[in-house]
Amino acid sequence: MSITTIIVNYNAGELLQRCVKAAIQSTQHSRIVVVDNASGDKSAQNLRNLYGDRAGVEFLFNPANLGFGPAINAVARNASSDYVLILNPDCILAPTALEKLRVAMDNDPQAGLAGPAVRDEKGRMQRATVRRFPDPWKSFLSITGLWRLGKWWPKFNGVEARADLSGTTKVDAVSGACMLVRRKSFEAVGLMNEKYVMHCEDLDLMYRLALQNWHSLYVPDAGCVHVQGQSSRSRPTWVHYQKHRGMLRFYNQYQANKNALPLRLLVRSGIWLRFLLLWPIILLKR
């Protein structure tokens, strides 16, 4: 089974080199395509100096930042491989991770997408590793912290889900930092939704797959390290804004018409209230 790995880069610095090096050293071969969205730190140019002549590593330099979805689609649309690996430039694959993801997908023809266990550099599982599709109630529980009561009362389960599973499991959603997508299912849902600028486009993809009776797999035996924040440090307010804009787009597209007007107004206000409340914290972490 052939795989195309797509890495969209924007000012990822030296992490991009670590990411590509790990992908090259993977026990599962893939064609690696680095798409640079007009980075200003020369991270992609420096990488090309290292791997420019290496077979299986290709580069696409965009004259402007086209956004994540369009950058992925530009490559995926012409890919002839069986699978497409969407990999963040700050994500470091374990040597056998891609192979284990591919095997899990091979063994489940109705799986449209698979993701690994995603940890930070200290080995802690990241919260987005396994998720439930959000709705107003689950989102409220996650924002207020009441989701912690879910271990005793399932009704209080929020968006976050337990990632300490012992085997490959069907889930609503996995982390968008590393997603192996079946090309057949990817094309069936129209590739990435290019209306999202940044954030929530991964959730949108998994939701559209589910609507067409494909499911996502969580493969805990596959692992990667996700070093978050490198690309967003130069523009924290913009990234924070796009994250909440993505939340609003997801809600408006899939759920708003199912809710009464007062709830719609409450959800939309809550999204922007969250943006305002967290904004100072985001700036302090810069």
Topology overview:
Layout: E1 3-9, H1 15-24, E2 31-37, H2 43-51, E3 57-62, H3 68-76, E4 83-87, E5 91-93, H4 97-106, E6 111-119, E7 130-131, H5 136-144, E8 169-171, E9 173-174, E10 178-182, H6 183-188, H7 201-211, E11 215-226, H8 236-254, H9 261-284
Parallel strand pairs: 1-2, 1-4, 2-3, 6-11
Antiparallel strand pairs: 4-10, 5-11, 6-10, 7-9, 8-11
Strand content: 15-25%
Q: In CATH, what is the class?
A: Alpha Beta
For CATH, the homologous superfamily is named as Spore Coat Polysaccharide Biosynthesis Protein SpsA, Chain A
> According to CATH, what is the topology?
Spore Coat Polysaccharide Biosynthesis Protein SpsA, Chain A
- Gyration radius (Cα, Å) is 19 Å
Q: Which residues form runs of ≥5 with pLDDT under 50?
A: none
Largest sheet: 9 strands, mixed
> Based on CA inertia axes, which overall geometry fits?
globular
Q: How many distinct helices?
A: 9
Distance between the termini: 42 Å
Average pLDDT reading: 90
**Overall strand count:** 11
Which CATH architecture is right? Alpha-Beta Complex
Number of domains: 1
The ordered string of helix (H) and strand (E) elements is: EHEHEHEEHEEHEEEHHEHH
Give the oligomeric state. single chain
Please identify the structural class as seen in this structure. Answer: alpha/beta
Helix proportion: 25-40%
What does this molecule look like?
There is one protein chain. This protein starts with a strand and ends with a helix. The protein has a single domain (3-230), classed as Spore Coat Polysaccharide Biosynthesis Protein SpsA, Chain A. The protein is of the alpha/beta class and 286 residues long. 37% of the residues lie in helices and 21% in strands. The chain is globular, with a radius of gyration of 19 Å. Helix 8 (236-254) runs antiparallel to helix 9 (261-284). It contains 9 helices and 11 strands.
